[in-house]
């Protein structure tokens, strides 16, 4: 149907009035649709990484010491009435669109999101939605970005479907989507860190995870922030080869890999005690020991660039440091003696490693609903 033009001198016909009314109502409904939002923090891991990767926790029990930081994965969900699902990744500059009841293949196009939506759809009837996603670090950065994104996604889907999920259930569901449904290699700490937030000492056993929040004194936390330096190596981890190699060496009873993994548990305990007692010089030194033991787990964990950066940081005043994730790239974390952090940062900047400012984040997954008044 054709409508009359809507300029200043246009004739207002009944058809034009109806068209304007429908358009205004559609615009009003779009503005008044609820927005479901979520944010989940990224994390830095101090010790124990690798002991949360199966089959180690089932056989020997894993221990991880980690803390969340003020970098987040964000999710926004807006309901639709047409039964379509549209997902837009602001980081990747990618969007997908499909019917809520359609079978969707995992083809490399936002598979993480598709798998999360599919898993929740098994709990509730599929619905049309618009999803907007953004993360403060790319996958493979070593900060648990992919898992934080999955936690944020489950957070908005939970609220939209009014599901009664506890924090443990959210973290477990996020882990199942990544590791079981998609078969992505990795451990369990990232999903639990993003969901619970803060400083945590996490225990992993056969079919069980226990998150122990740590009561770190504020002065200890502030001093730790002042002396820790987070830098980006310039590249992310490529693929799952490091984790696969580490797991195979454990399965083959490689002596170095076994020693490195088991020492991670001891160091996680010692570093937890140092944090609780405010012994940060001890904590900083143990951070370096944790890195030396981590490298035993696989020769692929470090690279010449990482080795050189570590040596230069120590010479400039760092007590110890390590890669924050599986290795091969991503972010590195250094503990610097008081008064030397700027020198370490300057030396690493000369090598092309960019400093990333951060503070600790004490809250995990947050969700809220907003309706335009």
UniProtKB/TrEMBL annotation:
<dbReference type="InterPro" id="IPR001174">
    <property type="entry name" value="HddA/FKP"/>
</dbReference>
<dbReference type="InterPro" id="IPR006204">
    <property type="entry name" value="GHMP_kinase_N_dom"/>
</dbReference>
<keyword id="KW-0067">ATP-binding</keyword>
<keyword id="KW-0547">Nucleotide-binding</keyword>
<dbReference type="Pfam" id="PF08544">
    <property type="entry name" value="GHMP_kinases_C"/>
</dbReference>
<dbReference type="InterPro" id="IPR052203">
    <property type="entry name" value="GHMP_Kinase-Related"/>
</dbReference>
<dbReference type="InterPro" id="IPR014606">
    <property type="entry name" value="Heptose_7-P_kinase"/>
</dbReference>
<dbReference type="Pfam" id="PF00288">
    <property type="entry name" value="GHMP_kinases_N"/>
</dbReference>
<dbReference type="GO" id="GO:0050201">
    <property type="term" value="F:fucokinase activity"/>
</dbReference>
<keyword id="KW-0808">Transferase</keyword>
<comment type="similarity">
    <text>Belongs to the GHMP kinase family.</text>
</comment>
<dbReference type="GO" id="GO:0042352">
    <property type="term" value="P:GDP-L-fucose salvage"/>
</dbReference>
<feature type="domain" description="GHMP kinase N-terminal">
    <location>
        <begin position="112"/>
        <end position="198"/>
    </location>
</feature>
<protein>
    <submittedName>
        <fullName>GHMP kinase</fullName>
    </submittedName>
</protein>
<dbReference type="InterPro" id="IPR013750">
    <property type="entry name" value="GHMP_kinase_C_dom"/>
</dbReference>
<dbReference type="InterPro" id="IPR020568">
    <property type="entry name" value="Ribosomal_Su5_D2-typ_SF"/>
</dbReference>
<feature type="domain" description="GHMP kinase C-terminal">
    <location>
        <begin position="271"/>
        <end position="351"/>
    </location>
</feature>
<dbReference type="GO" id="GO:0005524">
    <property type="term" value="F:ATP binding"/>
</dbReference>
<keyword id="KW-0418">Kinase</keyword>
<dbReference type="InterPro" id="IPR036554">
    <property type="entry name" value="GHMP_kinase_C_sf"/>
</dbReference>
